[in-house]
Amino acid sequence: MGKKVTVVGAGFYGSTTAQRLAEYDVFETVVLVDVVDGKPEGLALDLNQSRPIEGYETQVIGKTVGTDGSGYEVIEGSDVVIITAGFPRKPGMSRMDLLEKNAGIVRPVSENVAKYAPNAVIIVVTNPLDEMTALAQIASRLPKQRVLGQAGMLDTARFSHFVAEAAGVPIAAVKTLTLGSHGDTMVPVPSACSVNGKPLSEVLPAEKIEELVVRTRNGGAEVVGLLKTGSAYYAPSAAAARMAKAVAEDSGAVMPVCAWVDGEYGIDGVYLGVEAELGAEGVRRVVETSLTETELAGLKEAAEAVRAKQADVASM
Q1: Cβ-based neighbour number of residue 101 at 10 Å
Q2: Among this protein's residues, is 182 annotated catalytic?
Q3: What's the pLDDT tens digit per position in 37-71?
Q4: Among residues 90, 106, 256, which one has the least CA distance to residue 186?
Q5: How far is it, in rounded angstroms, from Cα 215 to Cα 206?
Q6: Distances from the Cα of 282 to the Cα of 121, 243, 244, 254, angstroms
Q7: Alpha-carbon distance 131 to 272, whole Å?
């Protein structure tokens, strides 16, 4: 039996994620669902017609679903479900401004995943990311290691891009890492960053590194401000699709993701951006990275900031 992945939400983010997943050719089926009548079916038809050109066999199925849960039977048997559904940010909005609006979308979606694909791994990308990941786990009641969020992969990619640009080196020469929350308490980890194997601190001056850290933290807002309508989707979809691929292939790849932390780094009981080893069951284990005292303090501060908000979503 081939692997099946579902993408919930057929906006720019969801449709681009579906395209990437189909072109990987590691899934038998990619399912795309949305509440906008005909949109997922139309996109699926379009994607399927690109198969002869791109040379992949993955079948894309589109299905319009109702807010009452009708149509969700199409996701049955999914190995991975990526939740992209929700309102995007507009210029001037913080991720937290979306909390209540998107909670009303993520909760019923998660309940339908639990109903029709109870063995799936859920990857959440809806903002505010850390809170929506916690809500998806609460609503679906799936084991915590099978619900994770996409954030660190994207933030780390942004940091790497900015460093490569500033240092004038190929992107392959750069290794960076960001932990913490997807937002104001994001913790870029300069001590774990290098350029051509050299510590970042030996390649760029401290003030330049700090400037890039701030730009990374505001990476999403920068894109939103330029686009004016909508938010980023090329880099975010690449990150979510890579996570889904690691789960489908049971690869054991270590990636920065939003995962349940229970004792690691001296932090208990919260969804937080950390490095984790991914496999068929979701998060196999959280990988503890060596941090400086300042970085560890930042991570603990991020944990406390998101803990309070994650407790709030339980009642949403």
Answers
A1: 12
A2: yes
A3: 999 999 999 999 999 999 999 999 999 999 999 99
A4: 256
A5: 14
A6: 6, 9, 9, 12
A7: 10
Cis geometry, peptide bond prior to residue 143 (ω within 30 degrees of 0)? no
Catalytic residue among 63, 107, 182, 245: 182
Quick count: other Cβ atoms within 10 Å of Cβ 209?
Answer: 19
* Dist CA 117 CA 292 (whole Å): 41
Q: In degrees, to the nearest 5, what angle opens at C-alpha 218 toward C-alphas 216 and 224?
A: 120
Tell me the two tokens of residue 283.
């998060």
pTM for the full predicted model: 0.95
**Three-class SS of 38-98:** CHHHHHHHHHHCCHHHHCCCCEEEEEECCCCCCCHHHHCCCCEEEECCCCCCCCCCCHHHH
* Residues in CB range of 238: below 8 A, 6 or more apart: 20, 157
Contacts 24+ apart (CB under 8 A), 297-302: 298/180, 298/185, 298/187, 299/179, 299/180, 299/187, 299/265, 299/267, 299/272, 300/265, 300/266, 300/267, 301/185, 302/179, 302/180, 302/181, 302/185, 302/186, 302/187, 302/272, 302/273
- Quickly tell me which residue has 């915590």 as its tokens: 144
Length of the chain equals 316
Residue that the structure tokens 């954030």 belong to: 151
Percent of the chain scoring above 90 in pLDDT: 86
For position 95, what pLDDT does the model report?
66
* Other CB atoms within 10 A of residue 229 CB: 8
